[in-house]
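Action item from last meeting closed. Structure (344 res):
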C-alpha cells in the first residue's frame, strides 16, 4: 500500500485563450494512484506538517494522510454531515474540523479517535475556522451571519458577533496579529479585531461572492477570490493589509468559480508566486507582482477543484470533486512547470 502503481507521462503544449494570451500547460496521463483518503468528494485539505495533510469531505470523515508514502495515518469520525473546513495548530498534533452539522470538533493526531472538544454555538453550517497565532483562540464563522471566538483551552465561548447578510465563506488569521480576515457571500471582505470581535476594516465591495482568502506569511498582503461563470468574475485579487489596504493586483483567466488561492513559498524563486484552483478543473500559477499567468495545469476528470493547500515544502495539495486529492509539484528545472505526481 502506498507505492506508485504507474509511471507519469506528461507533455507541455500551448493554449490560446479567448483574449489572445498564450499559456503554457502540461498534460498529465496515467497519474499514479495512492490509497484513497476518502470515498466521496473531498471538500478541504490543509497541511499539518512536512509529511502529513488533513482533509475532510462528504464522507463525513477527517483524515490524516502521509502524502510522502501514500497511506492513511488516522481517520477521525464524529461529524454527522460533510466536513467544510479544517484548521490546524501549527507545529502541533492538534486540529479542528468544521461541518455542515453546525459543529466544530477538536482532534489530537496521537490521541483518541474521539474528539477532544466540541464547539457548539452556530445555528447553521460552519463555513469558516481559524486558529490564533498563539493557538489559544479559535474563531469560527457560519452562514447564520455570526462569528464566534472560542478559548481553545477551556472550550468556552468568549465573544459573539453578528452582521446582517454576512454569510461567511472563509476565515484566515493574520500572522502575529490579533486580526482575522473573512470573506462572505455578500461580496465583502472584512478584517475583524479579535479584541472584542469587532469589524476593524471593510474592503471595497466586489461584484461577486468572495469564496476564499489567504494572508501572506509576513502578514503584509492577502489574496481573495470570487465565484463566477464563463469568465465573468472568477478572479483572485491581491490586497495591501498594512496602511491603505488597497487592491494591488488582479489575476484573471479562470472561467468558473475560483475556490481557493495560496501564496507559494519564496524558496521557489526570487519572484513571488500565487496559485489558484477553480471549478474549471484547472490550477494556475501567477506572477504575484504583474498578474501574469505563468502556467496552467488542467486536471482532467477531476471535476470542480474545491481546495488548495501548500505547506513548508514544495508540493501543492489540491482537493477535487471526483478524484480525491492531487499531489502537485512545481518544477523549476525547465523554467516553470506544475505537474501532478500522485492522486489519493
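Sequence:
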Amino acid at each position: 500500500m502506498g507505492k506508485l502503481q504507474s509511471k507519469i507521462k506528461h507533455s507541455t503544449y500551448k493554449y490560446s485563450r479567448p483574449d489572445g494570451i498564450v499559456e503554457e500547460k502540461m498534460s498529465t496521463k496515467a497519474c499514479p494512484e495512492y490509497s484513497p483518503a476518502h470515498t466521496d468528494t473531498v471538500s478541504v485539505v490543509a497541511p499539518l506538517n512536512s509529511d502529513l495533510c488533513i482533509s475532510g469531505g462528504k464522507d463525513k470523515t477527517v483524515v490524516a494522510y502521509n502524502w510522502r508514502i501514500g497511506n492513511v495515518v488516522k481517520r477521525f469520525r464524529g461529524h454527522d454531515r460533510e466536513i467544510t473546513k479544517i484548521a490546524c495548530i501549527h507545529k502541533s498534533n492538534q486540529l479542528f474540523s468544521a461541518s455542515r452539522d453546525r459543529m466544530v470538533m477538536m482532534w489530537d493526531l496521537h490521541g483518541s479517535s474521539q474528539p477532544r472538544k466540541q464547539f457548539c454555538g452556530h445555528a447553521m453550517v460552519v463555513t469558516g475556522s481559524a486558529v490564533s497565532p498563539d493557538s489559544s483562540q479559535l474563531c469560527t464563522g457560519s452562514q447564520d451571519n455570526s462569528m464566534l471566538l472560542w478559548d481553545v483551552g477551556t472550550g468556552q465561548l468568549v465573544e459573539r458577533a453578528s452582521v446582517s447578510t454576512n454569510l461567511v465563506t472563509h476565515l484566515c488569521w493574520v500572522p502575529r496579529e490579533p486580526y482575522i480576515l473573512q470573506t462572505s457571500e455578500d461580496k465583502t471582505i472584512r478584517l475583524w479585531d479579535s479584541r472584542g470581535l469587532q469589524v476593524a476594516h471593510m474592503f471595497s465591495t466586489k461584484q461577486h461572492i468572495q469564496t476564499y482568502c489567504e494572508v501572506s506569511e509576513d502578514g503584509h498582503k492577502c489574496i481573495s477570490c470570487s465565484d463566477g461563470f464563463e469568465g465573468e468574475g472568477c478572479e483572485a485579487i491581491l490586497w495591501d493589509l498594512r496602511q491603505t489596504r488597497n487592491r494591488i493586483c488582479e489575476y484573471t483567466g479562470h472561467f468558473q468559480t475560483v475556490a481557493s488561492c495560496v501564496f507559494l513559498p519564496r524558496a521557489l524563486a526570487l519572484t513571488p508566486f500565487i496559485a489558484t484552483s477553480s471549478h474549471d478543473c484547472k490550477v494556475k500559477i501567477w506572477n504575484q507582482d504583474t498578474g501574469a499567468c505563468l502556467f496552467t495545469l488542467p486536471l482532467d476528470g477531476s471535476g470542480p477543484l474545491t481546495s488548495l493547500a501548500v505547506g513548508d515544502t514544495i508540493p501543492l495539495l489540491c482537493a477535487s470533486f471526483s478524484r480525491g486529492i492531487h499531489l502537485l509539484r512545481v518544477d523549476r528545472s525547465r523554467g516553470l512547470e506544475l505537474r501532478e505526481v500522485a492522486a489519493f
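Note appended to the action item: The two ends are 12 Å apart (CA to CA).
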